[in-house]
Specification:
It is a single chain. By secondary structure, this protein is mainly alpha-helical. It has a domain of 98 residues: Serine Threonine Protein Phosphatase 5, Tetratricopeptide repeat, CATH 1.25.40.10. The protein contains 32 helices and no strands. The radius of gyration is 33 Å and the shape is globular.
Length: 596
């Protein structure tokens, strides 16, 4: 868990307990919290009055409102509804109290907090901004800063927190939140000054000392960083993060004994800290101490059969960031050939694939058993490996057989249908995709692929209706919007609708060269050749080697009588065409008056 994430989390939600035996760095919640709404007893001079008649106004009473009608009564009713977990009714009563006592800062503050709880931060911000203008007490300014922070208005939030600290240097939370903002922005000098002031006013703030150490480390002042991390541990000996910081310092300095000692302290007498065990095992392996590495990592292999956190940690720390070499080293220590190693073999397959060791990857994927949660993914990996080897029919045979173990998996049918599409068996492709849709009628990708297959099969009207269905299921599906729009444009029909669809697609993929080409083709069909050229030139910049876009650009240049550029575009298109070259060759021959 990253420290930064923890610090930011104090703005909106309570902190979650950590899973390790060691403590992680936490910080007190900001003041006030959403749970503080509707205090049971008003505490300020502007609290609602209990005198029912003092605030009555003509026509204010209604049979829908219980009596007596004093603002205090309605406030207490709001508090009662809040305790009953009925925030909407609480807001109704609170608004009534505010109508009777419109000058009460207390009620306005309570309204802001209740709006926050109901996730209506916009209204809460309006209320708090007005209160701050009336009088900038520290509590209200903290709430104001929190709302600006939540709205990602960081400059405003920083300014507010700076004012809070200028007004009251003892606001510990303000230092921590402001420091975290500067850390996120990598403004380490400013962050350092904030944390320095924090520990000056609160010498026992382990958070302040930790971040001072982190900033020193970022600056390369390792001695100062080490000192700050050690001070953090003096204040909170059970913390993990400063130990991790010390490990990185000692690694940088080549101090092997200290690295080992710190890892051992970090891990303690158990292996609950999975990340530290993985990193320590890698470190031992890098030192050539395979026996020590195996002692650390091999037990994790057996534990992973019952503890899914181990698999998740390897994915998070190594596979997602594409550290395939490190993942391979760890997994080779963890994996044996006994039953139950399917998950590890799948991860090994992913690591090998990432390192372009395709044959080894396939071997590991083949060892993933049908009962594994990764079996479906492994099957797809193997099928695509056969396809990439140029044997799509083998991929089809393999997936067809594997399907017996995955009778309810629509994704397998999606890939199987795509392979049939590739070998141009459109009837079988459509049949397979429709079978998948029967399993999952709202599976967008199955519907989209079926639309493409029907188009290639020559069933244009069916394709159009299917693409409409895709858009109905997923109105923001840029691929379907573009496909349908281009289909209309290419046939010269419904050009206004085509333009609308493609512009909608561009809202979701504004820098997509293929969608840009589609819009250009709409303008081409409308006869707006200048606009078409402008967009096609942009499309070619985005996708320089697509033969269709290049051919479209050549056609558009020809329409504005730029034959030289048209010829250049056609020749570039021909260079990238793999089949069906006859038409583009004829266009070149027409322009040159001779063959290619």
């Amino acid at each position: 868990m990253k420290i930064r994430t923890i610090i930011l989390s104090i703005i909106a939600i309570p902190l979650i307990g950590c899973t390790s035996d060691r403590q992680r760095i936490e910080a007190p919640k900001t003041t006030p919290t959403p749970n503080a709404v509707l205090s049971p007893v008003p505490k300020d001079a502007s609290a609602p009055t209990s005198e029912a008649t003092s605030f009555s106004t003509p026509g204010a009473e209604s049979s829908a409102w219980p009596k007596p009608a004093g603002s205090y009564y309605y406030y207490m009713e709001a508090h009662l509804q809040q305790r009953k977990n009925n925030p909407e009714k609480a807001m109704e009563f609170l608004n009534r109290a505010m109508e009777l006592d419109p000058e009460s800062r207390f009620l306005k503050k309570e309204s802001a907090l209740l709006n926050i709880q109901q996730k209506n931060n916009k209204r809460a911000l309006e209320i708090v901004e007005a209160l701050v203008k009336e009088g900038d007490d520290v509590e209200m300014m903290l709430l104001y800063g929190r709302l600006k922070h939540a709205a990602k208005q960081m400059d405003a939030a920083k300014e507010i927190y700076e004012k809070v600290l200028a007004k009251d240097p003892k606001q510990e939370n303000a230092y921590m939140i402001l420091g975290s903002i500067y850390m996120d922005e990598k403004k380490y000098d400013r962050a350092y000054e904030i944390y320095r002031r924090l520990v000056e006013h609160f010498p026992a703030s382990y958070i302040g000392h930790y971040f001072i150490g982190k900033i020193h480390s970022e600056r390369g002042d390792l001695a100062a960083a080490e000192k700050a991390y050690k001070r953090t541990l003096e204040l909170q000996p059970e913390l993990e993060e400063p130990l991790i910081g010390l490990v990185e310092i000692y690694k940088s300095l080549g101090q092997t004994e200290k690295v080992v000692e710190t890892y051992q302290e970090l891990i303690g007498n158990n292996s609950d800290n999975i990340g530290a065990v993985l990193e320590f095992g890698l470190y031992r392996d890098a030192l050539g101490d395979r026996e020590a590495a195996e002692k650390l990592l091999k037990p994790l292999g057996e534990e992973s059969l019952s503890d899914t956190n181990i698999i998740q940690k390897i994915v998070q720390m190594y596979l997602n960031p594409k550290k395939y070499k490190e993942a391979l080293t760890i997994l080779n220590y963890m994996t044996d050939e006994g039953p139950g190693s399917s998950d590890l073999h799948y991860l090994l397959g992913v690591a090998c694939s990432g390192l372009e060791k395709d044959q080894e990857a396939t071997v590991h994927f083949q060892k993933v058993e049908p009962g594994s949660r990764f079996y479906s993914n492994a099957v797809v990996h193997i099928a695509f490996a056969y396809q990439e080897q140029g044997d799509t029919n083998k991929a089809i045979r393999f997936l067809t057989e594997a399907r017996k173990n995955l009778p309810e998996d629509p994704d397998v049918l999606l890939y199987l249908g795509s392979f049939y599409e590739e070998i141009e068996d459109f009837e079988k492709a459509a049949e397979t995709l429709q079978e998948g849709i029967q399993l999952d009628p709202k599976h967008v990708r199955l519907h989209f692929r079926l639309g493409v297959v029907n188009d290639k099969w020559g069933r244009k009207s069916e394709s159009i209706e299917i693409m409409k269905k895709v858009i109905q299921l997923d109105p923001q599906n840029a691929n379907a919007l573009n496909y349908l729009g281009y289909t209309y444009a290419d046939s010269g029909e419904n050009l206004e609708e085509a333009e609308r669809l493609i512009r909608e697609a561009l809202k979701y993929k504004p820098e997509d060269g293929y969608i840009t080409d589609s819009l250009a083709w709409v303008y081409y069909k409308m006869g707006s050749y200048g606009k078409a050229v402008e967009l096609l030139e942009k499309a070619v910049l985005l996708v320089p080697d697509d033969p269709i876009i290049l051919e479209h650009l050549g056609d558009a240049y020809l329409k504005i009588d730029d034959r030289a550029k048209a010829l250049e575009s056609y020749r570039r298109s021909l260079l990238h065409k793999k089949k069906d070259k006859g038409e583009i060759e004829k266009k070149i021959e027409t322009l040159t008056g001779r063959g290619i």
